[in-house]
Design goal:
With 186 residues, the chain is α+β, with helices and mostly antiparallel strands. It has five helices and nine strands. The strands form two sheets. The chain has a five-stranded antiparallel sheet, sandwiched between helices. Strands 7-8-6-9 form a four-stranded antiparallel sheet, covered by helices on one side. The longest helix is centred in the middle third of the chain and has 19 residues, at 94-112. It is elongated and about 75 Å long. The protein starts with a strand and ends with a strand. This is YigZ family protein.
């Protein structure tokens, strides 16, 4: 919680994967802080293709959502929703005061949040016959490829994952094996 001229600001940070997750989280926050005046937020999703939104929830344009989004950027985060709840204290802060207050609320929430680092992985589908099992398994073991899912019926289909940085090398390693098909998972 952050206090500025009798107004109280509560900051929250949530991990998200999709925009659809935002609405239920906001509804929960609004129930928890039902007497608050504003529930401003910003979120960012994605790595190679970034999608973001900032919402001022009735505050003057760009005085709440964008300062919150600025903190997401300065912490270099993605797949995160930051909500700052304001209880109006009776004294107007002005646009500059609001910008500073929402920025501080978001910053305080992110400073105490547990930030999780994740790798960006590329998923491939590898298809082959049983006679090529040893060749495929050798590449998986030597290149430290993560096996996500395997289907072994008349032929074999593996879903594998590898860090984006090494994806091209892995694609070429499997593509070079005769009678083994590899394609990026959609």
């Amino acid at each position: 919680m952050f206090k500025e001229k009798n107004s109280k600001f509560y900051g929250y940070a949530f991990p998200i994967e999709t925009e659809e997750e935002v609405k239920p989280i906001l509804e929960k926050i609004k129930k928890q802080h039902y007497t608050a005046r504003h529930w401003c937020y910003a979120f960012q999703i994605g790595t190679s293709k970034i999608y973001f939104r900032a919402n001022d929830d009735g505050e003057p344009n760009n005085s709440a959502g964008m300062p919150i989004y600025g903190q997401i950027q300065s912490f270099e985060l993605t797949n995160v929703l930051v909500v700052v709840v304001r209880y109006f204290g009776g004294i107007k802060l002005g646009v500059g005061g609001l910008v500073q207050a929402y920025k501080t609320g978001a910053q305080m929430a992110l400073e105490v949040a547990e930030i999780e680092e994740r790798t960006i992985d590329v998923h491939f589908i590898v298809s082959f016959d049983y006679k090529n099992m040893n060749k495929v398994m050798r590449v998986i073991k030597e290149k430290n490829v993560r096996l996500i899912k395997q289907e072994m019926e008349m032929s074999c289909v593996f879903e594998i994952a590898i860090r984006k940085h090494f994806a091209q090398d892995i694609f070429e390693a499997f593509d070079a094996i005769y009678e083994v098909d590899i394609k990026e998972k959609e």
